[in-house]
Amino acid sequence: MAFDFDKIIDRTGTYSIKYGEAAKRGKPADALPMWVADMDFQTPPCVVDALTREVQHGIFGYSDTNDAYFTSVAGWFARRFNWAVEPQWLVKTPGIVTALHIAVRGLTNRGDAVIIQTPVYYPFTEAVESTGRRLVVNPLVETDGYYTIDFADFERKIADNAVKMFILCSPHNPVGRVWTRAELEKLGEICLRHGVIVVSDEIHEDFVYAGHTHTVFASLSPELRDITVTCTAPSKTFNLAGLMISNIFIANHDLRRAFKAEYERFGLSQLGVMGLVACKAAYDGGEAWLGELLTYLSGNMDYLAQFVGEHLPHIKVRKPEGTYLAWLDCRALGLDARELDDFFARKAKLWLDGGTMFGTGGDGYQRINVACPRSVLEDAMARLSAAL
Length: 388
Fold this sequence. Notes:
Elements: H1 17-20, E1 32-33, H2 45-57, H3 67-81, E2 90-93, H4 96-107, E3 113-116, H5 123-129, E4 134-137, E5 141-143, E6 146-148, H6 151-161, E7 163-169, H7 181-194, E8 197-201, H8 222-225, E9 228-232, H9 235-238, E10 246-250, H10 253-265, H11 273-285, H12 287-311, E11 325-329, H13 337-347, E12 350-351, E13 353-354, E14 365-369, H14 374-387
Parallel strand pairs: 1-12, 3-4, 3-7, 7-8, 8-9
Antiparallel strand pairs: 2-10, 5-6, 9-10, 11-14, 13-14
Helix pairs in contact: 2-11, 3-11, 4-5, 4-10, 6-7, 12-14
């Protein structure tokens, strides 16, 4: 490989919440952190070079994007997903979680119902409940580690609760599904039939493994494009979360106007120049790096699945179709949620994300982040094996 993903990089003392907050969050100092979804790999050299030039320029005033920025972003989605976007659709936010809150507050009213599919990324729940909306849950159906959608339950709950919004996770975090075109079309048909706005979180769209294809939800039809807020960001793909940049696409003029009005009520202004510079550089020059990264991550997933299958009979894991997060089924250990978290943190010395935070269907699971050098993953499996 042209890029070294085996290199161990010391992240202590760098304001990293992944490595610097064990005591604050009640975890042992010697627990190996494999929880929050950022990677232990340096961003591509093209991004480092662009940021270095910006630093050397030495002026960091109020900043905004130009046509060249949009061309870079639009080019990425056209090349990788065959999705054509228009400049007027773009609204930039500091992050997708911010965009979720803006969308819920700006496009629904207090007391309205919003549906999600659990177990799912926990800020979905927070964005609904913290804004005075009603949470409606359509649990995914698990069979031997593979998750599917209960479409009948999805439509019934939309109808029974007069649901106004659906927050879609695609690819899905934490269960690792890359939804097929047919699955997405069926979800879309139901939402169109009942007048439901779709907020599609597609932050993991670049992490899709062989045999699977990510389909942008809004690209399915003009009708679906017209009801969708598409949330994208370079932050997961290129490890840029700390630079606070997301690109939100809203084709419908009325939805976009309402979203922007709520954005203004948040009091948010221009984004930081470093995030804008990093995003453009990554989309212009980071594709080769990403290709090698995907090969490396697929190898990590293969190693994890093989090790668990051969050495950890009380734990099950299925290689995900997408994301760099694996969903460990620990139900056979017979531990409740607190005991399971305690076992991993204090006996195995591993800091993972407990399944219950992802809502219904998460009890008995742990989420592990494998975006790390292989030697770190080997250390983690050795710790877990010894603890068991």
